[in-house]
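In the previous chapter we treated chains in isolation. Here, by contrast, the input contains two separate entities that must be folded as one system, with a combined length of 542 residues.
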Amino acid sequence: VTNDWGFAHDLDNVSGQVAICGVGEADHTKASGRTATEIAGQAVERALADAGLEPTDVDGLMHVPMLKDRFDAAAFREHFGTTHEMWESDRGGGMVWAGTAPYEAAKALQEGKAHCIVNSFAVAWATQRGSMVGGPGQSHAEELSKQNLEVPFGWFPQPVYFATIARRHMHQYGTTQEQLGAVAVTLRRHANLTPAAIMRDRPLSLEQYLSSPAIVDPFRKEDCCLISDGGAAYIMTTPERARDLRAPVVEVAGVGLGNSVTGTHWSQQGAFTSTPQVFAAPGAFAMAGLTPSDVDVFTCYDPFTIVTLMQLEDSGFCQKGEGGAYAASGAVPFNTHGGLLSHAYVLGIAHVVEVVRQLRGEASNQVAGAEIGTYGGYTGPQASTLILRRAR
Amino acid sequence: VDVRPAFPLPDVTWEPARGFWEAAERGSLSIPRCDGCGRLTWYPRERCRRCESTGFTWTAMSGRGSLFSWAVVIHPFLKQFADAVPFVPALVALEEDPAVRIVTRIVECEPEALRFDLPLDVVFRPLEFTDVDGSVMAPMFRPRPREGER
């Protein structure tokens, strides 16, 4: 397979030019009856408290381009009772943008558009589930190529796509059901160590995994992410300003962004068992002057067990196809909070929060001495790599 | 999900794929061929990704392909799939250009008998869904009989 199935974005070097100075998570739950806006507001409150900042200190807001429930300036002002003006960008939120929001923020800081920027993302998809409004399948069912050429055959929704990808990965590389199960079991163990994780009280053994029925073979339920209410936020400023605040400084070392030319049409993707992380990661590591072997803790957008293996491979932690064995080796701790499978399905924003906490030494499931952490974002058509480091 | 009442039946009048569904009704598998570079282009696009041409001609395929990958759906993710499970959605690489993978279903074969690169032939079967009126004839695939078999 050649590399003509995607491309890397040419990003300016923002290494060391933006820091994450505050992080907050909303309560992650099953159906809560709350709106996404309420959830985001709670996350932002907690991020402000973490940073020791007031709502009026925030003069920039980033939110997601594709969902209606966004915590925009109007929502911010209403929630916090302020009237102040704010710079806004819809190139933030979760998924791939949880990894690239710091790049956009670095630009806004350089250009003087804002000095203190909040990126937030929240969903109430567990609450909305009964009405089939929102949720991960909706945008796919509404996309006309998929609606007319995939859904009628039952190749829908995402668990079916990724079960098909997993089967091909198993064929190409010898990945086993046990290796997929080991990812689910590892993440559940991490969630069991994380009080904020939805699955904190629900242990899972490999035996339980293997004896559970397939829902879309080769996937069991435990191969698939949760559907949650929840969200998180992080606050960005210059490293200089961050040093005056309360938390240890975590700065951005590198950012990368890659695309697949076939977008969400996974069926036609040239490298069927790869993510565009192949294109995103090299630029991010080059910007940071680091290699994957320098990374102490890795979080990745992991909607299904197979995606964790693909992300480990495509980020360069191991050779393509060796993700199953590599994950089992424990060489790099991954999704230490439990990931989308066992922490909460808040689409990657909490993964960035987890990396920041790890680098501060404040994580529930702390990796001793972690100095370099990476988030691998993924949205199907795009992948991002965000490399963070503890400032010295 | 906010879509047509007939969902998940395809909208056979949706212009970009109309040729696909019209051909299926006649018992033919048809794919757009780019008038500029002559390559098969799937999914239908307004502009060829390779040569930027905007002209395409629906072209009959042999109906021969090989099994690229598949899933076995046991849980009905849509209520309309309730009477269909278990079923086998699959990606089939076409003989004319294996980079073109048709999303389809495998029929007339037990899931346990499937293997990668299995030679397949197109057959036309009606798509029908629980509590949805109507049906649409669609290209599905079954294992090609070995030499000497019928």
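The radius of gyration of chain A is 19 Å. Chain A touches chain B through 40 residues (CB under 8 Å). Compare these points with the single-chain example from earlier in the chapter.
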